[in-house]
Amino acid sequence: MFTFIPSPSDTPRLDRGWIIANHKLVSFHAAFLTSLLSIPLHVGTRFDVMREMFLSVEVVISCLMWYAAWHSNIAIHEMGHYLSAVKTNNLRPELAGPAEQKLKQGLLGRWLWYVEMFVKIPYGAFQGVHKESGSYHPGVKTQNLAVSAAGPKASKVLSQATFLPGIALILFGLYRAYPAAVYGGRLLFTVGVVALFDFLLSDAGKYKAFRERQREAAAKAAEVRAAEPARETQEARPVKPSELRRKLRLHRLQELELADGTFVFAPWEFRNSIMGGRHTEEMGGNLSFQELMFLPLTAKDYIEAQRVTNLLQSRAIQIIQDTEGLNFVGIGLEGGIVASYAKQEGDLLPEERALRVAVQAIEECGFVPDRDVCLALDPAASELSNAYREKTGEKESVGQYLFWRAEDPKVLTTDEMVELYLRWVKKYPIVSLEDPFAEDDFEGWKKLMKALDQEILIIGDDLVTTKDSTIQKCAEQGLINTALIKANQIGTLSETLLATRKAKQLGLALVVSHRSKSPNEVMEADISFAVGALGLKCGGGANTERLVKYGRIVELMEMAKKGTKITRKLDPDITIADISAHEEPTNAGIPTVGVVVMLDNGMKFTAATPLGTSAGTDEAVHLVDSIIEANPLTRKFPNYFVFKEKEKTYRFAGNIKGETITKENRELADLWMRAKRYGGKGCLASAEEKIQIMQRKANLGMNAVLSLSLALGRLVAARDGKELPEVLREMESTIDRDHLYGIKSAVVVLEVAHAI
Q1: Which of 176, 204, 232 is the last residue of a domain?
Q2: Could you tell me if residue 139 is inside a domain?
Q3: Which pTM was predicted?
Q4: Cβ of 110: how many Cβ atoms within 10 Å?
Q5: C-alpha–C-alpha distance, residues 299 and 269, integer Å
Q6: Can you give the residue range of the structural domain that contains 283?
Q7: Would you state the pLDDT for residue 750?
Q8: Using an 8 Å Cβ cutoff, are 402 and 388 in contact?
Q9: Which of 52, 167, 437, 643 is the most buried (most CB within 10 A)?
């Protein structure tokens, strides 16, 4: 028998069905050569042998065997690919629904479906397996390793079931002189030998690579579980969460003592690696919780922490792609995995399956949960509360949480949420919960703090919105032990530093966070480094706009270690020549405000604010094109606008049509077109418009104010020959709150007026 094995120069023929040619060639040889075994013993001459092989009923039998071997091998091999794609949710959306319904049929219906596959696939007539230029492939979203390996695996099983049994049956038939046994053995052998070549040659190396990957993961997990036997049963955590909380609060990923005896810190990394909630609604998935983060604990620096994160996330993707009931959708805005997770027995929510995938990834990468890597959760529970209110119309409800993304949505009360968290913290390596309750569910916060204050970080985000007075209230009421810091929630660097200082005075830990829509901006890293934050939460994976933030910490630590600076002190006579604003692109495609401060010597200082608003009601407002200030057009055409009392701004009325406005007034049409850019989320500023430093945030918008604040901060740092974190560190301890908000000036005016 001869088979065609392509040389490197023949590689393009892989796309022209050379494997299928092998099927036909090998099955032809096997069928007709084994026909020699069925020739009667009395046939003596070569002519008689040829006549028996090609001019007798043996021709028909051999042709049937030839066809059976070709058909069954094509069908079984491709059924392996296809069924693996179905079970791992990897079929394209238009094919997945009908296939999943077929798979859920009763035993008889399922077997009839398998028979249909077997019959139709070789002819290219089965929906879901495509035949092109003599080659076959399933209609998958991504050709992952598990699906690629499933075809050779099916061929291997077919070979094991037919090849050696066929030889044995032939030998038995010859020995006992049973022609029927010889014919049966020939059929099995012909099918089996083609299946063997199919296993060895088609999808070359995929089965071996998949098996090796699974063996390696299992071996690493076994080592980890042997070291931590309590984890095997998941009855209790081998390490107390309180020990980890203490480690996180007292230490950092990197710590460096400077020559003057002070310390600088590289904060722990909170790496968003599994995403859900509002951040992924447009992509898919079924998690209602917003974020599941990995915390690398034993990495020696940020470079190694990035390697650990990539390993964990890559393995989590492989697990999702390879496992029945899980469905990989893609990578979200913040670099985390978007997927669907089918619940298993005992699961209340799909989030529990996601937690197990995360722990499995940790173990199968050879890391010990609770020692090398921990988990942090951001349920973003205000969104769960809002989902319940929207679903039921109960706008004033408190303590009702709807997990709306699950296939069978569930509502949990405050007490049920507390019980859920307690169970999870006991079972999984969780060390942090951010926004575990809605911002108005104070009883939930208090109950959780009473139960877990000494065990884990309980972080307020929507609850505090980076506002110093709110942070103080929440700390005094015993609602949180950690504050999340987002500069664009409050709108200026000065007010951000008021919040960090107040939190530290009250004994709270700090985690500095990014937002979902980000330009290539390192603001968060500068702030976290300046205030000695416990954590830096800037996304996962390898998204460039996230990596630059972590990379800035690497840069700052290296400069601190060497005692060097990038910034050079400016000439004191240099003046600002121009301040301008522009639209800056973000990873989400929605622009933010970028600011350029230009000096008269040509130097420039730039900044751009990350975008993203959460459910917190006290956040600073972004100014976008759909928000319109009072102007002659709003006064001339009042019927076209709706006034927003709280913001003192206008929007175009919802029932207004573009063609009507175009006919009405040219200036009005220009304003309409501007307000509709990027779905109303643009932030256009013409070249003539200058940013006035003292404008109120309500008029200008947080995005513009913070960008200007950041650019000017970098200018001030350069003026003094410093890096921005140095300036922020000094400001945090010296900033005067009353002066910042004009309270002192107002008191002076009142005293003067009273004296007069």
Answers
A1: 204
A2: yes
A3: 0.83
A4: 13
A5: 10
A6: 242-561
A7: 38
A8: yes
A9: 437
